[in-house]
Amino acid sequence: MEKFVRLTGVAAPLPMANVDTDMVIPKDYLKRTDRTGLGRHLFAEMRYDRNGAERADFVLNRPAYRKAEIVVALENFGCGSSREHAAWALRDFGIRCVIAPSFADIFFNNCFKNGILPVALPKAVCLQLMEEAERGANAQLTVDLEAQEIVRSDGERIAFEIEPFRRERLLKCLDEIGATLAQGDKIDGFEARLARRQPWRAEVLEA
């Protein structure tokens, strides 16, 4: 997983609500168990026609957004099934941040496990950002996790909220295992104190 501190990039506008995980990565591609190679199938049913040719009108196929690192969408992004492949596909394509009014809980959690920052902003603000994103590569956004703000191309700053623990994990590039290992000294100290208070536990474990 890659740390997330500050990102400046092109935002792709996706003016859709209830974008479910089957739209993000169709079930046909769930046989993969690794996280690489899924980017080409991101939004596959919207990006390609039945013959596999790109649909010129889909945002990620438009020249200005082929290297987009941010997606701006509408409410309830990531609803549907709990497949972690949705986050894998976004990340493999190059998406580091998704901005929307709200997210499905499981998808929201999966984002943090895969180095993606989901930012919840009011719908009116998301619509403004989408309108700005329509200017293509000339309208870059800066997402600053340290400062907890988004900087628009005109310099306006938009604050966002994020749980301190989640913020710390992304800033330090820690997944759940890494976050646990970072507390190794405290865990060892607890185990040592417990062993002194309850020495019989060690005897039971050894037996």
Describe the structure.
The chain has 207 residues and is α/β, with parallel strands linked by helices. Helices cover 35% and strands 15% of the residues. It has 9 helices and 7 strands, in the order βααβαβαβαβββαααα. The model has no long low-confidence stretch (mean pLDDT 88). It has helices spanning 21-24, 44-47, 85-93, 105-113, 123-133, 164-171, 176-181, 184-197, 199-206, and strands at 6-14, 70-73, 97-100, 117-120, 140-144, 149-151, 157-159. It has 2 domains: 6-173, Aconitase, domain 4 (Alpha-Beta Barrel); 175-207, no CATH class. It is globular, with a radius of gyration of 20 Å.
In short:
Helices cover 35% and strands 15% of the residues.
CATH architecture of the largest domain: Alpha-Beta Barrel
Rg, Cα atoms, Å = 20 Å
Query: What is the mean pLDDT?
Result: 88
Task: Please write the string of helix (H) and strand (E) elements.
Answer: EHHEHEHEHEEEHHHH
Low-confidence stretches: none
User: Which fold does the CATH topology of the largest domain refer to?
Assistant: Aconitase, domain 4
Distance between the termini: 40 Å
Strand order of the largest sheet: 4-3-2-1-5-6-7
**Which structural class do the helices and strands define?**
alpha/beta
| Helix residue percentage | 25-40%
Assess the beta-strand content as a share of residues. Answer: 15-25%
When the domains are counted, the total is 2
Task: Characterize the largest beta sheet: strand count, sense, and whether it forms a barrel.
Answer: 7 strands, mixed
